[in-house]
User: What shape does this take?
Amino acid sequence: MDFFILNTFNKLRLADSIQRKKYVISKGIDPFFSNVFRAYKFVVLYFKEVFKAPFHFREVINQCFEVGLRSLSLITLTGFVTGIVFTKQSRPSLEVFGASSWLPSLISIALVRALGSLVTALICAGKVGSSIGAELGSMRVTEQIDAMEVSAINPFKYLVVTRVTATTLTVPILSLYCGFVGLLGSYLNVHTHEDTSFVAFFENGFETITFLDVFTSVFKSIVFGFTIGIIGCYKGFNATQGTRGVGRAANEAVVLSMFFVFVEEIVIVQVSNWIRNY
Amino acid sequence: MEALKNISNTEIVISIKDLYKSFGELHVLRGVDLEIFKGENVAVLGKSGTGKSVLIKIITGLLRPDTGEVKVLGQEVAHLKGKELDVLRLRIGFSFQSSALYDSMNIRQNLEFPLVMNKKDLGKAEIKTAVEEVLEAVGLSDKLNQMPSDLSGGQRKRIGIARTLILKPEIMLYDEPTSGLDPITSMEINELIAEVQQKYNTSSIIITHDLTCAKVTANRVAMLLDGKFLKVGPFKEVFSDSDKRIQSFYNYNFTE
Assistant: This one.
């Protein structure tokens, strides 16, 4: 009889411990999945709203200027330095094989295929993503978003759709600009060493660039721009807990944007390589 | 109802029946009933955290009730979506506790914004006139080109009220209009609320824990305690009640 009671007691304890473990696991997992689901709904809502009137063209243009102007100086500097440093670092290795004349091609491929869009996306994730997250977060905690809603203004349409559209349009332009500035930096280095003319450098550089390279680069930048905008807006729009929440929204916008930019970079490069080899 | 003698109309503009609202385990509203008549100001009193702001957020559709019925201008708010809700919202003005002015816009742009977004048929001259009119109504005509950050707390509250008045609402909802203000500025805001009622013939709910504000601005007061209205009626009637909770609220907050 004692054994039966003990056995039942042990079974109950085991069931209770399993239940607790389940609770601990679900406590961590449930918010994660509900967050993913909310983010998914946020993205779907963007695509529903972006093609529906009214279209706030003026606000989109304002935001394009904001995104462009906020990052232009840093992109110019980083692109230029990347071009110079990449050329300087590649030169000794190429010279060993007597292939320093390949420098323009090498730099062009590196900048167009990878560096231009990636560097631009990372800078924009830091500058623009954080700023969107902080701006919308502060609007949320100071009830400015609620004020729009009660004035019969759709805050999602006015704040989110305009900003995401602006980053999606502007980041590709900035990426192309970054690539061009990088090539200028590279040209400066090549010109000082080999006295190569501007035209010859660019002719040589663009010889190896294919349509697929440019298309992939622009496509990648569009995806990066969308990612930076939507994550910044999602984090800001759903900010809670006052000023602390605003800081967290800005920080999470940067970290998540960079993470997704790297993941997308790997996936798109892989797919473009398959297409190239096909 | 004694206070209703002061208002000409007995048409109900807001009707709340058996309203319940919880946030997780926290049961904020537990069976709230209230009726607001046309042209009437009602002050909702209660301690912080009793769900006063939740109540007006439900009225504007910013929050959804768990159960119960909230009818505004004859329409059940919880059943409205999209454009229907927007049309109703244009008839309701909401003055936020924090003023909620758009800090990236100057005062003129703050005031123009609801008009530009909602009344597409208005010309520039008409918008300009409307802006000047509401600024004059709140006594801040000289602040047109300033930024919200340049204004004092009282001025921000006034601009917040002006921004809601520009859409000529039939109902005004004030969320803690005098919180964080000195007694003189509070009195100015109270006078402004009373003026708005007279000039624009609005019906209002004033959420406050400031008894002076309630006494000066409201035809009736409603005492919210433990998620329900403990007593609704004219100021004197409510505070002549012997209920200890009402008396302690009066004694701690008000000196006549």
